C-alpha cells in the first residue's frame, strides 16, 4: 500500500513539475529528478525483487506505468518548449524582407577614356591602326625630326618640361609620327592616343593632358584625303549636320598647315560665350607632312606624301559633354565621374 501511494504521489508530482517547466533546462532537471539513476522511481524498480510475488506484480506494473507516463509527458513538453524557443528566436531575429537592398556603387569608364575609345573606333573604321610611343622622349623625336631644330622659335609654342639636357616629357603625340614611320614603310595609316605634358595650368589647360595624333602616308595622298577623313570624323562624333571649316595655320612639321573648326556645338553657330561669338570652335591642327619630316624618317618625299593631324582629347570631351573646367577630369570626384 505504501508503495502504491508513493508511486501515485510521485506521478502527480512529476507530471506537474514537467507541465510547469518553463524552458528546456528546467525540463532536463525534471527528467534527472524523476527518471534519473538516483530517482525514487528507479529505486522502487530496483527493489521489486524483495517484494512478495503478488505485491511485486501490482507494484511493478504501476511503477512501469508511472515511468511510461512521465516519459511521455517529458517528450511532449520537450516538443512544445522547442517549438516555442524556435518561435522566439524567429521573432527576435526577424528582419524586414521588403526593405530595399544596399545599392552597390559600380565603377565606370573615365569620360576621357570613353572619348578616346570613341575617337579610336571612328578612325579604325576608316582603316587606321593604333600605335604607341614613349612619354619620356628625346629632343630629336619631339622637336628636331619634326622640323624644329634647336633654337627654332616654334619650340616656344609649347612650354616644355625638361628632364636633364636631352630628355623631356613629350609635349605632343607627334613624336609617334617619327617613331612609327621609321620602323615601317608606307602605306600606313596610324592613330596614336596618349599623354602629353606642358607647363601650363588654368581652367582650359592642364600640365598633363591627352592627345590623339593621326597620320596617313602613301603615294599620291592629297589635302583632299585630309579634308575627307577629318570631315567624316567630325560628322561621326558631333553629328551628321555639323559644319566644318579649314583655316590656314602654321605648324613646323606640315606644309601647308591648317586648323579645323567645327560649328559651335553650344549655340549651333549662332555665336555664344564659348565660341567667343564666332560660331566656330577650333578642334584640331593638321596639314600635309613636311618633306623634311619625311626625309628625317628616310622616306622619299618625291614618291610619298601624307597628311597628319593632332587633337586634344580633353577638348573634344569638354565640347561633347559641355564641361567647362578641364580640372574636373583629374580631380576624380565620383559625383562628377558617375554622370558618364
Ligand atoms: N602637335 C600639335 C600640337 O600639339 C598638333 C598638330 C598640329 C599635330 C598639326 C599634327 C599636325 O599632326 O599636322 O599642337
Shape call: rod-shaped
How many strands?
Answer: 10
Count of domains: 2
Question: What does the main sheet amount to?
Answer: 7 strands, mixed
CATH superfamily caption of the largest domain: Bira Bifunctional Protein, Domain 2
Strand order of the largest sheet: 1-5-6-10-9-8-7
Order of helices and strands: HHHHHEEHEEHEEHEEEHEHHH
Question: What ranges have pLDDT less than 50 throughout 5 or more consecutive residues?
Answer: none
The secondary structure category is alpha+beta
Radius of gyration, CA atoms, in whole angstroms:
45 Å
- CATH architect. name of the largest domain: 2-Layer Sandwich
By CATH reckoning, the class of the largest domain would read: Alpha Beta
Please bin the fraction of helical residues.
Answer: 40-55%
The chain-level mean pLDDT equals: 92
- Proportion of strand residues: 15-25%
Distinct small molecules bound, one entry per kind: 3,4-dihydroxyphenylalanine
Question: Count of helical segments?
Answer: 12
Q: How would you describe this structure to a colleague?
A:
- Helix content is 43%, strand content 20%.
- With 340 residues, the chain is of the alpha+beta class.
- It has a 7-stranded mixed beta sheet with strand order 1-5-6-10-9-8-7, with helices on both faces. A 3-stranded antiparallel beta sheet has the order 2-4-3.
- Helix 1 runs parallel beside helix 4.
- The radius of gyration is 45 Å and the shape is rod-shaped.
- Bound molecules: 3,4-dihydroxyphenylalanine.
- 3,4-dihydroxyphenylalanine binds next to strand 9 and strand 10.
